Protein backbone atom coordinates (compact mmCIF):
# COMPACT_ATOMS: atom_id res chain seq x y z
CA UNK A 1 0.00 0.00 0.00
CA UNK A 2 2.87 2.37 0.81
CA UNK A 3 4.68 1.84 -2.54
CA UNK A 4 1.59 1.43 -4.73
CA UNK A 5 1.56 4.88 -6.41
CA UNK A 6 5.14 4.47 -7.64
CA UNK A 7 4.40 1.01 -9.03
CA UNK A 8 1.28 2.25 -10.80
CA UNK A 9 2.92 5.44 -12.11
CA UNK A 10 5.81 3.47 -13.57
CA UNK A 11 3.46 1.34 -15.66
CA UNK A 12 1.40 4.31 -16.84
CA UNK A 13 4.43 6.26 -18.07
CA UNK A 14 5.16 3.42 -20.52
CA UNK A 15 1.84 4.03 -22.31
CA UNK A 16 2.52 7.68 -23.14
CA UNK A 17 4.28 9.41 -26.02
CA UNK A 18 3.34 6.97 -28.79
CA UNK A 19 2.13 9.66 -31.21
CA UNK A 20 2.14 13.39 -31.94
CA UNK A 21 -0.24 13.25 -34.90
CA UNK A 22 -3.24 11.20 -36.01
CA UNK A 23 -1.69 11.07 -39.49
CA UNK A 24 0.19 7.97 -40.67
CA UNK A 25 3.58 8.20 -42.43
CA UNK A 26 3.73 7.60 -46.17
CA UNK A 27 5.57 4.47 -47.28
CA UNK A 28 9.23 4.97 -46.37
CA UNK A 29 8.57 8.08 -44.31
CA UNK A 30 9.98 8.06 -40.82
CA UNK A 31 10.42 10.06 -37.63
CA UNK A 32 12.71 10.00 -34.63
CA UNK A 33 11.32 11.49 -31.42
CA UNK A 34 12.67 12.01 -27.92
CA UNK A 35 10.51 13.09 -25.04
CA UNK A 36 9.51 12.74 -21.40
CA UNK A 37 6.29 11.31 -19.99
CA UNK A 38 5.48 12.76 -16.56
CA UNK A 39 2.82 10.83 -14.63
CA UNK A 40 1.17 12.40 -11.58
CA UNK A 41 -0.33 10.76 -8.49
CA UNK A 42 -4.00 11.61 -7.80
CA UNK A 43 -5.00 12.86 -4.35
CA UNK A 44 -6.40 9.41 -3.53
CA UNK A 45 -2.95 7.89 -4.09
CA UNK A 46 -1.20 9.99 -1.43
CA UNK A 47 -2.61 8.09 1.56
CA UNK A 48 -3.92 4.64 2.46
CA UNK A 49 -6.22 3.17 5.09
CA UNK A 50 -4.32 1.09 7.67
CA UNK A 51 -7.37 -0.75 9.04
CA UNK A 52 -7.82 -3.34 6.24
CA UNK A 53 -4.13 -4.24 6.55
CA UNK A 54 -4.29 -4.64 10.34
CA UNK A 55 -7.26 -6.97 9.93
CA UNK A 56 -5.01 -9.31 7.91
CA UNK A 57 -2.13 -9.27 10.42
CA UNK A 58 -1.47 -11.57 13.33
CA UNK A 59 0.14 -10.66 16.64
CA UNK A 60 -2.44 -8.38 18.23
CA UNK A 61 -1.62 -5.21 16.30
CA UNK A 62 -4.00 -2.29 16.87
CA UNK A 63 -4.16 1.44 16.29
CA UNK A 64 -3.38 3.72 19.22
CA UNK A 65 -6.14 6.05 17.99
CA UNK A 66 -8.88 4.29 16.00
CA UNK A 67 -9.86 7.61 14.41
CA UNK A 68 -6.33 8.13 13.08
CA UNK A 69 -6.12 5.43 10.41
CA UNK A 70 -4.89 7.17 7.24
CA UNK A 71 -1.14 6.95 6.59
CA UNK A 72 0.87 8.60 3.80
CA UNK A 73 2.04 6.59 0.81
CA UNK A 74 5.54 7.08 -0.56
CA UNK A 75 4.10 9.91 -2.69
CA UNK A 76 2.40 11.68 0.23
CA UNK A 77 3.56 13.77 3.16
CA UNK A 78 2.24 14.00 6.71
CA UNK A 79 3.59 15.39 10.03
CA UNK A 80 4.70 12.77 12.55
CA UNK A 81 2.02 13.88 14.99
CA UNK A 82 -0.72 13.04 12.47
CA UNK A 83 0.55 9.63 11.31
CA UNK A 84 -1.01 6.45 12.75
CA UNK A 85 0.75 4.72 15.64
CA UNK A 86 0.65 0.93 15.85
CA UNK A 87 0.48 -0.85 19.21
CA UNK A 88 0.85 -4.35 20.58
CA UNK A 89 -1.15 -4.56 23.76
CA UNK A 90 -0.90 -1.06 25.26
CA UNK A 91 2.66 -0.45 24.10
CA UNK A 92 3.46 1.91 21.23
CA UNK A 93 5.63 0.04 18.73
CA UNK A 94 5.70 1.97 15.47
CA UNK A 95 4.74 5.33 14.02
CA UNK A 96 4.09 4.66 10.34
CA UNK A 97 6.72 6.24 8.04
CA UNK A 98 6.34 9.48 6.17
CA UNK A 99 6.33 9.67 2.38
CA UNK A 100 8.70 11.54 0.09
CA UNK A 101 6.13 14.11 -1.02
CA UNK A 102 7.34 13.49 -4.59
CA UNK A 103 4.12 12.81 -6.49
CA UNK A 104 5.44 12.85 -10.08
CA UNK A 105 7.35 10.24 -12.08
CA UNK A 106 9.31 11.25 -15.23
CA UNK A 107 10.14 8.66 -17.88
CA UNK A 108 12.39 9.62 -20.82
CA UNK A 109 11.49 7.90 -24.07
CA UNK A 110 13.08 7.63 -27.54
CA UNK A 111 11.16 6.20 -30.50
CA UNK A 112 11.51 5.66 -34.24
CA UNK A 113 8.49 5.24 -36.55
CA UNK A 114 8.43 4.10 -40.20
CA UNK A 115 5.65 4.20 -42.79
CA UNK A 116 4.53 0.91 -44.40
CA UNK A 117 2.22 -0.01 -47.28
CA UNK A 118 -1.55 -0.17 -46.74
CA UNK A 119 -1.64 3.16 -44.84
CA UNK A 120 0.16 1.70 -41.83
CA UNK A 121 3.08 2.62 -39.61
CA UNK A 122 5.25 0.77 -37.09
CA UNK A 123 7.14 2.21 -34.13
CA UNK A 124 10.04 0.87 -32.10
CA UNK A 125 11.31 1.79 -28.67
CA UNK A 126 14.61 0.19 -27.72
CA UNK A 127 17.18 0.61 -24.95
CA UNK A 128 19.58 -2.37 -24.93
CA UNK A 129 20.59 -3.57 -21.48
CA UNK A 130 22.96 -0.90 -20.20
CA UNK A 131 24.84 -0.60 -16.95
CA UNK A 132 24.41 2.39 -14.66
CA UNK A 133 27.63 1.73 -12.76
CA UNK A 134 27.12 0.60 -9.19
CA UNK A 135 23.40 1.41 -9.38
CA UNK A 136 22.52 -1.55 -11.62
CA UNK A 137 21.24 -1.91 -15.19
CA UNK A 138 18.12 -1.16 -17.24
CA UNK A 139 16.58 -2.17 -20.58
CA UNK A 140 13.46 -1.15 -22.52
CA UNK A 141 11.67 -2.58 -25.54
CA UNK A 142 8.43 -1.45 -27.14
CA UNK A 143 6.44 -2.00 -30.34
CA UNK A 144 3.63 0.08 -31.80
CA UNK A 145 1.37 -0.24 -34.84
CA UNK A 146 -0.78 2.53 -36.31
CA UNK A 147 -3.26 2.21 -39.19
CA UNK A 148 -5.22 4.95 -40.92
CA UNK A 149 -9.00 4.57 -40.71
CA UNK A 150 -9.87 7.88 -42.36
CA UNK A 151 -10.77 6.08 -45.59
CA UNK A 152 -13.46 4.08 -43.76
CA UNK A 153 -15.23 7.09 -42.23
CA UNK A 154 -17.79 8.64 -44.62
CA UNK A 155 -17.50 12.28 -43.53
CA UNK A 156 -13.81 12.51 -42.56
CA UNK A 157 -12.49 10.88 -45.76
CA UNK A 158 -13.51 13.95 -47.75
CA UNK A 159 -11.68 16.38 -45.42
CA UNK A 160 -8.05 16.75 -46.58
CA UNK A 161 -6.79 18.31 -43.33
CA UNK A 162 -8.45 15.82 -40.98
CA UNK A 163 -6.84 12.47 -40.17
CA UNK A 164 -7.92 9.46 -38.12
CA UNK A 165 -6.15 6.24 -37.15
CA UNK A 166 -6.04 3.44 -34.61
CA UNK A 167 -2.97 2.51 -32.58
CA UNK A 168 -1.80 -0.42 -30.49
CA UNK A 169 1.34 -0.13 -28.36
CA UNK A 170 3.25 -2.33 -25.92
CA UNK A 171 6.32 -1.41 -23.84
CA UNK A 172 8.41 -3.47 -21.42
CA UNK A 173 10.89 -2.02 -18.92
CA UNK A 174 13.28 -4.21 -16.98
CA UNK A 175 15.91 -3.22 -14.45
CA UNK A 176 18.13 -4.56 -11.71
CA UNK A 177 19.04 -2.22 -8.85
CA UNK A 178 21.88 -3.11 -6.50
CA UNK A 179 20.80 -3.11 -2.86
CA UNK A 180 22.83 -1.99 0.17
CA UNK A 181 20.74 -3.00 3.22
CA UNK A 182 21.27 -2.40 6.90
CA UNK A 183 24.20 -4.44 8.29
CA UNK A 184 21.71 -6.57 10.23
CA UNK A 185 20.50 -8.02 6.90
CA UNK A 186 23.90 -8.65 5.32
CA UNK A 187 23.90 -11.45 2.77
CA UNK A 188 24.77 -12.04 -0.89
CA UNK A 189 23.49 -11.39 -4.46
CA UNK A 190 21.14 -8.69 -3.21
CA UNK A 191 19.14 -6.96 -5.94
CA UNK A 192 15.81 -5.27 -6.52
CA UNK A 193 14.43 -6.55 -9.83
CA UNK A 194 11.79 -4.34 -11.47
CA UNK A 195 9.70 -5.44 -14.45
CA UNK A 196 6.96 -3.22 -15.81
CA UNK A 197 4.67 -3.56 -18.84
CA UNK A 198 2.29 -1.13 -20.49
CA UNK A 199 -0.28 -1.93 -23.18
CA UNK A 200 -2.54 0.63 -24.83
CA UNK A 201 -5.10 0.84 -27.65
CA UNK A 202 -6.15 4.21 -29.10
CA UNK A 203 -8.52 5.82 -31.57
CA UNK A 204 -6.84 8.97 -32.87
CA UNK A 205 -8.33 12.06 -34.50
CA UNK A 206 -6.42 15.12 -35.59
CA UNK A 207 -6.12 18.15 -37.85
CA UNK A 208 -2.91 18.95 -39.74
CA UNK A 209 -2.46 22.47 -41.09
CA UNK A 210 0.79 24.17 -42.08
CA UNK A 211 3.11 24.40 -39.05
CA UNK A 212 0.47 23.26 -36.51
CA UNK A 213 -1.12 19.88 -35.85
CA UNK A 214 -3.84 19.24 -33.26
CA UNK A 215 -4.45 15.68 -32.12
CA UNK A 216 -6.48 13.73 -29.62
CA UNK A 217 -6.77 10.09 -28.63
CA UNK A 218 -9.12 7.98 -26.54
CA UNK A 219 -8.61 4.37 -25.59
CA UNK A 220 -8.06 1.61 -23.06
CA UNK A 221 -4.79 0.76 -21.37
CA UNK A 222 -3.46 -1.71 -18.83
CA UNK A 223 -0.20 -1.91 -16.88
CA UNK A 224 1.54 -4.22 -14.45
CA UNK A 225 4.70 -3.64 -12.42
CA UNK A 226 6.54 -6.23 -10.32
CA UNK A 227 9.13 -5.45 -7.64
CA UNK A 228 11.12 -8.49 -6.47
CA UNK A 229 13.78 -8.31 -3.77
CA UNK A 230 16.12 -11.19 -4.61
CA UNK A 231 19.18 -12.70 -2.96
CA UNK A 232 20.02 -13.64 0.61
CA UNK A 233 19.28 -11.17 3.44
CA UNK A 234 20.52 -12.96 6.52
CA UNK A 235 17.71 -13.31 9.04
CA UNK A 236 15.16 -12.36 6.38
CA UNK A 237 16.13 -15.39 4.31
CA UNK A 238 16.16 -15.67 0.51
CA UNK A 239 14.03 -13.53 -1.83
CA UNK A 240 12.15 -11.95 1.10
CA UNK A 241 9.36 -10.19 -0.79
CA UNK A 242 7.62 -9.65 -4.11
CA UNK A 243 5.15 -6.85 -4.84
CA UNK A 244 2.82 -6.58 -7.85
CA UNK A 245 0.77 -3.59 -9.00
CA UNK A 246 -1.79 -3.50 -11.83
CA UNK A 247 -3.92 -0.77 -13.40
CA UNK A 248 -6.44 -0.70 -16.24
CA UNK A 249 -9.01 1.71 -17.61
CA UNK A 250 -9.92 4.28 -20.23
CA UNK A 251 -8.16 7.59 -20.71
CA UNK A 252 -8.19 10.56 -23.07
CA UNK A 253 -5.53 12.96 -24.24
CA UNK A 254 -5.18 16.09 -26.36
CA UNK A 255 -2.06 17.69 -27.77
CA UNK A 256 -0.40 20.20 -30.06
CA UNK A 257 2.57 19.85 -32.41
CA UNK A 258 4.57 22.67 -34.02
CA UNK A 259 6.52 21.69 -37.11
CA UNK A 260 9.35 23.84 -38.46
CA UNK A 261 10.70 22.05 -41.51
CA UNK A 262 11.82 18.60 -40.39
CA UNK A 263 11.88 19.65 -36.72
CA UNK A 264 8.79 19.04 -34.58
CA UNK A 265 8.04 20.16 -31.03
CA UNK A 266 5.04 18.56 -29.34
CA UNK A 267 3.20 18.30 -26.06
CA UNK A 268 0.01 16.68 -24.80
CA UNK A 269 -1.88 15.94 -21.61
CA UNK A 270 -3.58 12.67 -20.70
CA UNK A 271 -6.62 12.57 -18.42
CA UNK A 272 -7.05 9.35 -16.45
CA UNK A 273 -6.58 7.79 -13.03
CA UNK A 274 -2.95 8.86 -13.34
CA UNK A 275 -2.83 12.06 -15.39
CA UNK A 276 0.27 12.54 -17.51
CA UNK A 277 2.03 15.37 -19.35
CA UNK A 278 4.21 14.56 -22.37
CA UNK A 279 6.76 16.92 -23.94
CA UNK A 280 9.14 16.10 -26.76
CA UNK A 281 11.02 16.99 -29.94
CA UNK A 282 11.48 15.04 -33.13
CA UNK A 283 12.77 14.89 -36.68
CA UNK A 284 10.18 13.86 -39.24
CA UNK A 285 10.42 12.97 -42.94
CA UNK A 286 6.95 12.25 -44.29
In short:
By secondary structure, the chain is mainly beta. Helix content is 5%, strand content 58%. It has helices spanning 4-13, 51-54; strands at 30-40, 47-49, 61-63, 70-72, 85-88, 91-95, 104-116, 120-131, 136-148, 162-178, 188-208, 212-232, 241-260, 263-271, 276-285.
Keywords:
286 residues, 2 helices, 5% helix
Description:
- The chain has 286 residues and is mainly beta.
- It is 5% helix and 58% strand.
- It has a ten-stranded antiparallel barrel with strand order 1-7-8-9-10-11-12-13-14-15.
- The longest helix is centred in the first third of the chain and has 10 residues.
- The mean pLDDT is 91.
Helicity, as a percent range:
under 10%
Number of helices: 2
What gyration radius follows from the Cα positions, in whole Å? Answer: 23 Å
Q: For the report, how would you describe the main beta sheet?
A: 10 strands, antiparallel, barrel
Give the overall silhouette. elongated
Topology (SSEs and partners):
Elements: H1 4-13, E1 30-40, E2 47-49, H2 51-54, E3 61-63, E4 70-72, E5 85-88, E6 91-95, E7 104-116, E8 120-131, E9 136-148, E10 162-178, E11 188-208, E12 212-232, E13 241-260, E14 263-271, E15 276-285
Antiparallel strand pairs: 1-7, 1-15, 2-4, 3-5, 5-6, 7-8, 8-9, 9-10, 10-11, 11-12, 12-13, 13-14, 14-15
